[in-house]
Amino acid sequence: MCTKEQAEHIAKITRYGEGGRGYAGSTRAASYATKPMPKHLADSKASTTVVAQIEDPIGVENVEEIAKVEGIDALFIGQVDLAVAYGASSVADDVVTRRAFASSKRPRMPVSL
């Protein structure tokens, strides 16, 4: 993920609602149409987690804006792809983690490698 706009799009299409994904009541999560719609919608909202994968220098530049998007719950830093993109010799190269983590300042935003 590289931009705030991509993050907004992903956050929207991973959830039911206006402009988001359509309702699917015949799924396993909806107990194959036996769970009442309001219960399924509430359960889905409570249990959906969206992780933004940052694996490009453009994504690193925009990671603070990506992390602010409502519906983005965590960040995953694709350190191997970043190492290649930055021309680093390994994922242990300081430039990879320093740039990725330095720009992520949202309080309590889980970040993993």
Can you describe what's shown?
This protein has 113 residues and is mainly alpha-helical. 42% of the residues lie in helices and 9% in strands. A three-stranded parallel beta sheet has the order 1-2-3. The mean pLDDT is 86. One of its GO terms (cellular component) is cytoplasm. GO terms for molecular function: aldehyde-lyase activity; metal ion binding.
**Biggest sheet: strands side by side, in what order?**
1-2-3
Biggest pleated-sheet summary: 3 strands, parallel
- Number of beta strands: 3
- Shape, please? elongated
- The sequence of SSEs as H and E is HHEHHEHHE
The residue ranges in which pLDDT falls below 50 over 5 or more consecutive positions are none
Number of helices: 6
Q: What fraction of residues sit in β-strands?
A: 5-15%
Please state the CA-atom Rg, rounded to the nearest Å. 17 Å
- Return the structural class: mainly alpha
| Percent of residues in helices | 40-55%
Distance N terminus to C terminus?
15 Å
Give the overall pLDDT as a whole number: 86
Family: Belongs to the HpcH/HpaI aldolase family.
Keywords: Lyase, Metal-binding
GO cellular component, one term: cytoplasm
GO molecular function, one term: aldehyde-lyase activity
